[in-house]
Amino acid sequence: MAKPIPTSFLTRANALFRKNLTYQKRNIWSNVRLIVIPLYLCVVLVCIQALFDALVNNSTDNQCGCRCIDEKNGDEKCEIKSCGLQYSSQNQAVFCAFPNPPALLPLLHIPRRDSCRSRRGSCPVTILVTGTNQSLGATLSGNLLSTSFTVNSSDLFLRNLAYNVLGTKSETDYTNYRDPGLYSDLPIFNIQPQCTSASKISFSLRQSPLQFQKEVRCVEGLNLWRNNSIEVNNEIFKGYHKENHKEIINEVAAAYDLLDTDKKNFNVTIWYYTTYKGDLQDWRVKYVRVLRSVNMVSNAYLQFLQGPGTKMLFDFVKEMPKQETRLRMDMASLIGPIFFTWVILLLFPVILTSLVYEKQQRLRIIMKMHGLGDAPYWMVSYAYFLAISTLYIVCLMIFGSAIGLKFFRFNDYSIQFIFYFLYINLQISIAFLVSSAFSKTVTASVAAYIYVFGSGLLGAFLFQFLIEGLSFPRRWIFVMELYPGFSLYRGLYEFSQYAFQRNLNGRDGMKWKDFRGSAMDEVFPIIIVEWFLALIAAYYMDRVSSSAKDPFVFLKNAFKISSSQERPRLQKQVSSVLVEMDKLDVIQEREKVEQLMLEPSTSHAILCDNLKKVYPGMDGNPPKLAVRGLSLAVNSGECFGILGPNGAGKTSFINMMIGLVKPTSGSAFVQGLDICNDMDRVYTSMGVCPQHDLLWETLTGREHLLFYGRLKNLKGSDLNQAVEESLKSVNLFRGGVADRPAGKYSGGMKRRLSVAISLIGNPKVVYMDEPSTGLDPASRMNLWTVIKRAKKHTAIILTTHSMEEAEYLCDRLGIFVDGMLQCIGNPKELKGRYGGSYVLTITTSSEREQDVEILVQDVSPNAKKIYHIAGTQKFEIPKEEVRISEVFQAVEKAKSSFKVFAWGLADTTLEDVFIKVAKTG
What we know:
Blueprint: H1 9-26, H2 28-57, E1 66-69, E2 80-83, E3 108-109, E4 125-130, H3 134-143, H4 157-162, E5 166-168, H5 180-183, E6 188-192, E7 200-207, E8 210-225, H6 229-238, E9 240-243, E10 246-249, E11 251-257, E12 269-272, H7 291-306, H8 331-334, H9 336-345, H10 347-360, H11 363-369, H12 374-402, H13 406-409, H14 413-435, H15 441-468, H16 474-480, H17 484-505, H18 520-547, H19 553-558, H20 566-577, H21 584-598, E13 604-615, E14 624-635, E15 639-643, H22 650-657, E16 665-670, E17 673-674, H23 679-683, E18 686-689, H24 701-711, H25 716-729, H26 747-759, E19 765-769, H27 777-790, E20 795-799, H28 803-809, E21 812-817, E22 820-825, H29 827-834, E23 837-844, H30 849-859, E24 864-869, E25 872-878, H31 884-895, E26 900-906, H32 910-920
Helix pairs in contact: 1-12, 1-24, 2-9, 2-12, 3-7, 9-15, 9-17, 10-14, 10-15, 12-14, 14-17, 14-18, 15-17, 17-18, 24-25, 26-27, 29-32, 30-31
């Protein structure tokens, strides 16, 4: 027998590709709605930004203060508006123009002293000193603070103040154009080793546009030596120490670690006070007052080297000139990561549910049974999802840029596209991998949406805080980025920060030159590596699930956990059950198969040699023997029918033959190909009509047949002709039924379409599971005609519960009982072999029932009554004891003695044979 030539890879890929395009066309509005979702979210972001601009960015509090000067009295319109620092509040001053910034006093930031409960009534400003040389430390400590308070009213007022160490408790602002230490109501403190009663003055500074008047108070400065930096750290973070069970507040304003400083080496570490409440989440960074601390220790060291008369005078601090600015906060970029995490991850449920739907509806397996291999399925499906995802991302970028989202416009488009492209590949691979864990689309959809929204929320309210927190170890950030949702969020976070900073202060957005300086240099490799690992794992799990193997079989082999010791015991149990005498016809079939197995070639399309299927016992139950040593040969052009009660093993046998499950032992060949090793080639010449219709709801009957016809290597006019003939043969051609979606078909129409699919392309072997279920009598007879015509060059194995169908279609029948063939032969042989009796039915009045029994006993002494109710009786009469003419004569004679309402004599039916074999099997 010539083995079938498999359909080429490109032909099968082309068939699936065309089917997917058609399916996509049928679901065009679903795709439109999918693409519109990110557009809606982009519009939401634009609306949020517009609202923020109106309430915050364009607020008068976030721009330089102005005053209206109306030259026309009584005119409510502002004719002249003057803006400047003199019209500005504390917050507005930050945005004013400063072409000539004023010179300001350098101040030391000292802690707030509201909680001071010292016995002396005031708390000293503590300065801690440590180092390796305590004597040097003591010398420098004495030089840190000025011992006099020198102030006069000359033009060198600022310089005179600069000789003193001045401090303030006011928090700093975001710039130094208008230091709150000078403009707030809080006094300025002059820090001295010892205060006197005269150490309090007031002064005023009038330097346009700045005018202020301040009070200077003296506060004691306390220099303390500590043995090492650990003690300094402990005291700084503890904040106070207890002395005589009373709290003494040590308010540390500065601390110095002189390290190895000596006359030839000046090496110092400076701690400075900069504790602010509520500033961690602020978008702006406040400056710190560290310059005076540096000047203090520098002057102390100079005096140590050159004497007390030497000083490095710190006259003033001064900002750089600046133009007038406005607040430009891009809120859309700040909240963009969580929004766009949801937008991109929304593709995941779509892909996952599509894969699980094909698995749930068993569309994947039915495609495979008609010749679609794993390789074209993976290639076309992956390319299909990748094309949709890429279009989705491109539309998102184009629309986001078009409506003005700086998140897209300020960052390099090539970096964005490559990042999104890599991630959607990872997302598709994960969807393929995860789909093996789900069998229901509802469960898969719920789990996918939990993943989508959970990733966004965890990213915004956990992961982002850990990224911005300096105390969280960076290696754990890397570990968290291994979770795909966080790697996506991290990349989007980087885009948002670069866009936000450019909008705020004019910095460039993310460019390729910034790649290494951002987190992208670790996010990209993570995504690429996970992409390939997920793809490999998904392919492995798919192969395992399709072959019904244990996914962790390699671990069992590695640890030598095998079932080799259990197999002999299992086989022993099976063999003990199989010690039964087969029927003669079954033995003859087995001998025939053994003879055919020895021949180099055979005309038989299907050969099964001692095929067995044993399901292992669970929870202490014994193994389940589904098929017990089946031997069968089916010739090309023959229809073999399988009958049997539910649970007899028919489905297990069919599942082995179509590749759903592997046989436990034995062998089977289809067109000379082993079902255990060459199933992929078997599929190319096989047709299947499953018990339940496996159809795409949105594809038409014609489109179904075109797809499966292409899988059978039909092309061009041959394909169109085969589709037309198939539709006409099953009465799906007229009235536009062929071009109607299968989801709108009735049950009978779907059944007829399933039969047409199984027969298209003239497969060499066809398996049909109850093909005429649900059909009306006319449609059923027409379908039988189609099947009978198709079997001329095809081997058909058919399962049915209809004895009429079996007798009409099947050349031979086999009755399955308890996993074994109990009998085999054509319908007439079986009726002759198992139907050796007639059934006589007579209906009379109740009082004449005894007369009927006497009549039957006279005709056949071995007759057996099998039915009796209300005057109607049935008797089983052995054929060898009577002739039909004798029965007719006896009944006609009885009619003269008593009234017979009705009577009949029937031969044994196939249904009677089935019942008899099923009971005795």
